[in-house]
Structure formats: C-alpha cells, structure tokens
What we know:
L-lysine efflux transmembrane transporter activity; extended; LysO; transmembrane; mainly alpha; membrane; 92% helix; 3 helices; 98 residues
Amino acid sequence: MAVVIIMAAGTLIGYFLIPVRATERFGKFNSQFQLILVCILIFMMGVKLGSREDFLQELTQLGWKSLVLAAFPIVLSVALVYPLTKRFLGRHVRKEEE
C-alpha cells in the first residue's frame, strides 16, 4: 500500500508542481534516469531472490502453472500491441515518408 501512495504522490507532484517547460527541457535526462533506476530495481530484486536458500527448489516446485501464468499475459500483450502498433504508428511513418 505504501508503494501505491508514494507513486500517487509522485504523480500528483509532477502534475501540479512541475511546469511543462521543465519536462520538455529535462525529458531526456528524466527518461535515462528512470531507466537506470528500473535496472537497479530489477537487479536488487534478483539479488533478493538469489539470496534465498531454497530458491531453486521453490522455483522447481512452482512448475508449469507459474510458467503459464507468466507466459499467457506476455503472449496476449504482444498479440495486441503488434497489430495496434502497425495500425496506429504505421500511419505516422507513412505521413513522414511523404
């Protein structure tokens, strides 16, 4: 719950307190900063999982059910995003080429 509150607070602060001109000027820096922080977050999650003594045993016990539960949303996301990208972004690419 604390994570949701922190994210909501950051969103509200960004929306109400930071002017649009600042986001245009620092947008690239902000994007790179977010990428670095996400990489650190993923790395730290891996460290935490890897430090568990029974992690590999727990992972094998989860079995096919967890694989399907992970793969199903990924496959559906790609199946939806790919045609939608072709449809909506394809128009912009064609207009820029003309």
